[in-house]
């Protein structure tokens, strides 16, 4: 009997932050987050006790917010849906190969170490590391890649996608979601607020984190796509979810909402750095900032959904994975990366230094 030619075994690993499954896991999740040197850049001897303190202090208020979503975060089920959709698209695109999509969360289950063992058991020829963060930051993508590189010792050539701030399907999915909300607001003056998760300003000014620049790249592309169809729109970038005493990127989303109220316009708000629904969209944008807009008199207050399993976005992820496998063309590294950001240190899948 002659053996059929076997295709490649390809593992695609989706990186995300992770979220607590229930009330009891809120504190250990917060501890893992604040104990990451990418989040608190202090030596372990200071950072670990500080992480214990912050996670204890924050536990009750965070639990109350997770309780508003049924007790825990929907991030894992949402990410599983994206993984399933991507696996279907990639197996169709790469027929002959066997593609499996895995999920590695940074701070809660399935944690990186567990996924690394699963991927190793799969025995891949190729491993594509694909962050569910369109914009690169040391606090998210770099942290996940470092954890992965420390945990994975299985087979295969590893190739990492650093970022895709201006990938066509991602931009178009955003433009469509915002366009639908602008249609709902027709006849009422509104400002499109592109709300990104903030990071400390020092990471950008002192460490050259390209996150802010890549947020601006995404926003410029989305605005261009919308304006090509509807003409000029009123829009602004703002940063949500500020934590701790340091100066974060600004303006903050609450400041931007207050300004919209002062300017006498309503708001169409869109999450521009998140690709699925979770606490930052369902609680912070929908509830907290919705109440603020109401209080300050900015109306209407409409929120565009995160892209989730929108086919345009899943196609953009598939395209990033396929181009990482072939390493042709500029995507996924060319668009929006700072030329001096060590020209993407993860280009070859392993951290260069
Ligand atoms: C682009 C994505 C994200 C960046 C950048 C980011 C930076 C960052 N986050 C914190 C602190 C917290 N983040 C929390 C939750 C959380 N953050 C992101 C994404 C980014 N974070 C996600 C996807 C989630 C999970 C949401 C869920 O549903 O569970 C939390 C916990 C929630 C809370 O208590 O507010 C904290 C804390 C810092 C300090 C930081 C950059 C330095
Ligand atoms: Fe966060
Ligand atoms: Fe890059």
In short:
This is Ferrochelatase. This protein is α/β, with parallel strands linked by helices and 353 residues long.
Give a topology summary.
Elements: E1 9-16, H1 26-34, H2 44-67, H3 75-93, E2 98-105, H4 112-122, E3 126-131, H5 138-151, E4 157-160, H6 168-184, E5 190-197, H7 201-207, H8 211-230, E6 235-240, H9 253-262, E7 266-271, H10 279-296, E8 301-303, H11 311-326
Parallel strand pairs: 1-2, 1-3, 3-4, 5-6, 5-7, 7-8
The structure holds the ligand C=CC1=C(C)c2cc3[nH]c(cc4nc(cc5[nH]c(cc1n2)c(C)c5CCC(=O)O)C(CCC(=O)O)=C4C)c(C)c3C=C and fe (ii) ion (2 copies).
Residues 17, 19, 30, 33, 39, 58, 62, 73, 75, 133, 137, 139-140, 197, 199-200, 243, 273, 278-280 line the site of the ligand C=CC1=C(C)c2cc3[nH]c(cc4nc(cc5[nH]c(cc1n2)c(C)c5CCC(=O)O)C(CCC(=O)O)=C4C)c(C)c3C=C.
